[in-house]
Amino acid sequence: MAGNKYNDKGGGSDTICLPANPTWSNYSDGIKGNKARIYGTEFNDDDGMFPYAVKNQDLPCAVCLSRKNTQIMIPGRNNCFEGWTKEYHGYLAAEYHSHNSPINHICVDFEPHFLPKGSAEDNEHLLFLVEAICGSLPQKT
Q1: Would you call 86 exposed, middle or buried from its count of C-beta atoms within 10 A (0-12, 13-18, 19+)?
Q2: Nearest to residue 1, comparing CAs of 68, 74, 50?
Q3: What is the pTM of this model?
Q4: CB under 8 A, 24+ apart: contacts of 67-74
Q5: CB 126 within 8 A of CB 96
Q6: Among 7, 20, 49, 9, residue whose Cα is nearest residue 132
Q7: Is 84 helix (H, G, I), strand (E, B) or coil?
Q8: Is 16 buried (19+), middle (13-18) or exposed (0-12) by CB count in 10 A?
Q9: Mean pLDDT of 117-140
Q10: What does R_g of the chain's alpha carbons equal in angstroms?
Q11: Residue 101 in contact with residue 138, Cβ under 8 Å?
């Protein structure tokens, strides 16, 4: 499970599932310049609600399987788990990590289409590719 850092102003505003075993398209390690960022999720509360200590524990993502049609976006893979069907291929994007307007993470098509004559730098609603930050998210092995 992953999302925006608690004190980042921009980035994504939602929590998403990430696979434990990512597969990559065009990727290189390291923090790059103008990107959104995504971090692993951890509990920051421990008021006795659970039968054991949960504070600072990193959380995986849990998905319930339905006998009906199920759709879920799990970024971090460019191929499907066994028994799954690929519907889409692209990159994860959100707002720049220090901007004041976080937005939901979205997929941007691997080969995006553009509006005609839409190349002016208006700096309005902006998208940046997301990079994973290790810590609560384990390093790629």
Answers
A1: exposed
A2: 74
A3: 0.64
A4: 72/17, 73/16, 73/17, 73/107, 74/16, 74/17, 74/18, 74/19
A5: yes
A6: 20
A7: coil
A8: buried
A9: 78
A10: 17
A11: no
Taking the C-alpha atoms of residue 90 and residue 92, their distance in angstroms, rounded to an integer, is 7
Give me the chain's average pLDDT, please: 81
Output the six-digit token pair for 93. 């994007």
Q: Give 50-72 pLDDT, tens digit per residue.
A: 677 778 888 777 676 667 777 77
Q: What is the DSSP letter of 45?
A: -
Residues contacting residue 89 through CB under 8 Å, at least 6 positions apart: 78, 109, 110
What are the structure tokens assigned to 35, written together? 């990107």
Cα 130 from Cα 18, distance rounded (Å): 13
Q: Which residues make Cβ contacts (< 8 Å) with residue 38, sequence separation at least 6? A: 2, 3, 4, 11, 12, 16, 18, 92, 94, 105, 130, 131, 132, 133, 137
CB-CB neighbours of 110 under 10 Å: 12
How far is residue 96's CA from residue 130's CA, in Å, rounded to a whole number? 9
% pLDDT > 70, the chain: 89
